[in-house]
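User: Predict the complex.
Assistant: Input components as received:
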Amino acid sequence: MAFLEKFMDMDRRWVYLLSWIFVLAPLLYPLGLPIPINQEAIKWYDTIDKIPNGSVVIFAPMYGTSGMPELFPMTVATMRHLWSKDIKVIVVGFWTEGPLVFRTLLTQVDPTSYGKVYGTDWINLGYIPGSETAMASFAKDIPGTVSSDFILGQPTTSFPMMANIKTAADIDLIISIETGTPGATEWLRQWQAPYGVPMIVGCIGVSVPGMAPFLQSGQIGALLPGLTSSAEYELLLKKPGLAVAGVDAVSMSHLMVVALVILGNIAYFATRGSKGGKK
Amino acid sequence: MSNILRRIEIPIFLTIVFTLIQVVPYYVYIQPLDDAASYIQRWILIVLALATFVGVISILQVHGKNVAKRSKGWYFSVIVLVFTIVMALVGLPLAEVGLGDKNPVYLFLFNYMLQPLSGTMYSIIAFFIASAAFRAFRARNIEASIVLVSGLLMLISNAPLFTVFWPPFKTIGTWIFAVPNMATNRAITIGAALGLIALAVRTLMGIERGYLRGGGAEQ
Amino acid sequence: MAVTTVLGIFIQGRVFGLVCLLVIMGATAYFIRQAQAGKVPTLRRLAGVDAIDEAIGRAVEMGKPIICSHGIATLRDATTGPQTIAGLSVLSYVARRAAEVGARLIVPVRQTEVWPVAADVVETAYKLAGKGSEYKVEDIQFLSSDQFGYSSNYMGLLMREKPGANIMIGAYWAESMQLAETGSRVGAMQISGTAQTSQIPFFLVATDYCLIGEEVYSAGAYLSKDPQLIASLAGQDVGRIIATIIVVLGGLLTTVGSKLILDIMAW
């Protein structure tokens, strides 16, 4: 019984150590656990796969370096998917580190290997300061808000793909990969509600519960939540990458927390009976 | 003159006027008002750019004092000051002299220091969540038991390790996400939005003054 | 882009929202007039807000400082700016009480644009308490504009200063868990509050008191005990009644296949 009481009150640093072991071990020694494909990844894959040829898509990495471990795999996988199709991609960021995240992506994915030409098939408009205000301004007047592109520094209107793109009405889909604010709710307020532009969102696990009302109402067409769904998406693309490599760690860390919670409650009930319980 | 400028009515008046300029064009189409709102949004960006220096001044004040007085941990303040100055200098948008976001020092600091440190800090949350879950998820009463059971089911449904052996775990997790969670989130979102509207209305009417000096009370 | 208007001036699709806003404003004005005539509505207790005095007292007894933060958002954002304003309202109260009881108050700041506002709020609170000479500008600390730079700095502050009270009311994101857990580790009494739905569970689990959603916006009014501010909360409840009626009616009508409510809301 004394052991159970000590277990319940154990120094939190033991929990930190256990977390570290349960996450690190599968990364060093992959377990190869099976990954079932679920509806969220299938919907995301289908939504992107069914984008009609010639469409114009905004791809917005709305996160910084802190979100890269969880969101970078889905960013890479999504860009691979987009570049494998005949669609125009506008990359834009409303987070300061968004363009830098995309620059890191370019070191791993080469658009020319997909036959994509900068300025004709895709363009990077860089970071636009101002958060939601900037998103509203961007919706009203795209070339007016961003007068030059991020990579070459040339006037936005000088690029062939931007010739007929003036406002949000000229955009066919928004893909937002995000960790917080500005994010989905700002896109909804400034783009989806006023202009009816469809959008899909990839986000971290913590943000997922808050997306439920928008998913249910259809305002968000598809949601790709976290690393596990990113792994499923990579498998659908038949290009396993960073996400697949990390899923074993996700499973083991979840197992550890479940086990600790169950054991903690067993100890709680066992000691509560004997000594009137402890908080 | 300075006494007149310190009157509380001036910031309240400015707040009301500028709030109306931003809110009215959302509902009413008056082109000059719409243009005025756009101009003011650009003014905001200019003010923000100037406000950047305020942070640097505060850092220099706090850490500079620590170093000058050799307070406890003053050497950490030296590190803060050195990196603040170095990053600010090499990041200046002066591509002609080799500074800016393509500067090798800037890229090194960003790629090999900021990126790993940010990722590490974010990852610490996992440890804290595990520790908090172990301490807090106890079935002390009915409400705590509901939190415990639903939390465990969501954890299980998000781990392929469990769902591959018993797929209904995923179905249960999806139901919790799509029904009780969605309803609760919707309620909290609507409630928070109403609270936000009430705060905005109070600000517009000039009776919410907590953000003004001293809560708006006269000195 | 061409704008479609109703009656030549109101923007299509926003008329219903305007009507609701005007109704809430009218109700607020009505209840304020009632309050001026002496009829102040009664508020339900907000345990978290009531606990602020207890937390300040605890810090004084322990001889420890108080840390009071107002979130990490700017003043400009549509949904998080008001949370910052609410946090500054609470800061104003906490600063005045801290000055009265002689407790050291530390205010960590993330946004450069908020720093002068926070400094002004605290300085004036000290002056109003007659303790202007005890105000220290270096206790209003700009930590970092980077989210995790701010968080790691704040955690360090908690570990070094070991405050008796850690009050966090405003808009928080991922750092909420880090701050709450660290505050718990150092034994601070923690009062938190945010309208960020993703962070509410972390605060609920790791802090002693938590204000949820709209309670954050009411905190300033509740603390001030100003009759006009309290009366304005009744106006907010009118909005809640409207929302409830629309939800119930809309649910029933949509179930029987009617789009009446949807059409009205699309005016």
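The mean pLDDT of chain B is 85.
Let me know if you want any component modeled separately.
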